[in-house]
Amino acid sequence: xxxSVLGIxxxxxxxxxxxxAELERVRPAIVLIEGPSDADPLLGLAEDPGMVPPVAxxxxxxxxxxxxxxxxxxxxxxxxxxxxWAAAHEVPxxxxxxxxxxxxxxxxxxxxxxxxxxTTEDEDERPDPFQxxxxxxxxxxxxxxxxxxxxxWWDDVIEARLDGQSPFEALSExxxxxxxxxxxxxxx
Length: 188
Hints:
By secondary structure, the chain is of the alpha+beta class.
């Protein structure tokens, strides 16, 4: 079995075109889309011709409705295009994130429910030499390519791309290199 990851940063027409072209090339047996796994029963609504973006999934805490999360879809959203592609090709589609409730947990509740770390305060306060890579891997790739603006790099490499070539293999390889850079040494 082959797994293809189509890394997307923006809702944009170039990203959407690239996703559709890659789905046409790969012809997957199932499509997994970023979104809350407990919303899978709603995915079939995308097949209805009357369902026209912009649309969004909204999840909220019924006890405190201001605690909410949403997942927007526009015509040019790569996720929407993947949903429509899957429907048109009768391919199963699922969301692949944690359930919505995981996004609605308040920071205070998370801290009190999480198991306490066995690290000391000194270990917790040590600077992470790779935090910049974790915080902005696209920025790191843009810098390596000679760009001072990660958004301009993404626009040039993905959004403005009209050559029909898939950017996903190169993006996956570049991200793998960054992961290798920050991975702890064996036994360390």
